[in-house]
């Protein structure tokens, strides 16, 4: 069962007991949840004195890559391998898997190739990963001159920006959608340009070509 994060769902989870709790997220709310939920075995990250810490040594690698640039740059493991490490499991080159649900919205057929531009970087990384708006306009314009179809991707935070970029460049913008419909829109693309790792993970799972901006 899926539960949306809320006070009510937190109380429901605290009232039960589980065999395993896996928390792969280092945000304070997720770490606090890992502390509160009862389980025989907990893996990943938890909260200690108000800060995220590894629950055990299996999560040390991912923890330290987030703290030290030299450790991050020397890391040769891919994201899936890191998640297996945190869970204490052996990685056997498993691929991403995701159900490319079509959602409820039917997007129009677009001339190939279709390039999706994720123009934001979320609230957490917005200041350090965001590319200037005028650069997105230039990129969208040039890609269309080369014969591609450009669609703008993002959530509620990027809505006004994407409206402006669309007006200036002529790129398609269909709006922002719930996760299944957003995933369906990503699936319409041949190439994704993004600085947001969430869109990157969808693109990898859907086997799309990717240009990733790394700050």
Average pLDDT figure: 90
Number of helices: 10
* Rg calculated over all Cα atoms: 20 Å
Low-confidence stretches: none
Largest beta sheet: strand ordering: 5-4-6-7
β-strand amount: 15-25%
Overview of this protein structure:
The two termini are 36 Å apart. This protein has helices at 7-14, 28-36, 60-65, 69-74, 79-87, 122-129, 133-145, 159-169, 179-187, 197-205; strands spanning 17-23, 38-48, 51-54, 114-118, 149-153, 191-194, 209-212. Helix 7 packs across helix 8. Strand 2 (38-48) and strand 3 (51-54) form a beta hairpin. It has 215 residues and is of the alpha/beta class. The model has no long low-confidence stretch (mean pLDDT 90). The strands form 2 sheets. A 4-stranded parallel β-sheet has the order 5-4-6-7, with helices on both faces.
List keywords for this structure.
215 residues, alpha/beta, 3-stranded mixed β-sheet, 10 helices
List the helices and strands and how they pair.
Layout: H1 7-14, E1 17-23, H2 28-36, E2 38-48, E3 51-54, H3 60-65, H4 69-74, H5 79-87, E4 114-118, H6 122-129, H7 133-145, E5 149-153, H8 159-169, H9 179-187, E6 191-194, H10 197-205, E7 209-212
Parallel strand pairs: 1-2, 4-5, 4-6, 6-7
Antiparallel strand pairs: 2-3
Helix pairs in contact: 7-8
Outline of the structure:
By secondary structure, this protein is an alpha/beta fold. The protein has helices spanning 7-14, 28-36, 60-65, 69-74, 79-87, 122-129, 133-145, 159-169, 179-187, 197-205, and strands at 17-23, 38-48, 51-54, 114-118, 149-153, 191-194, 209-212.
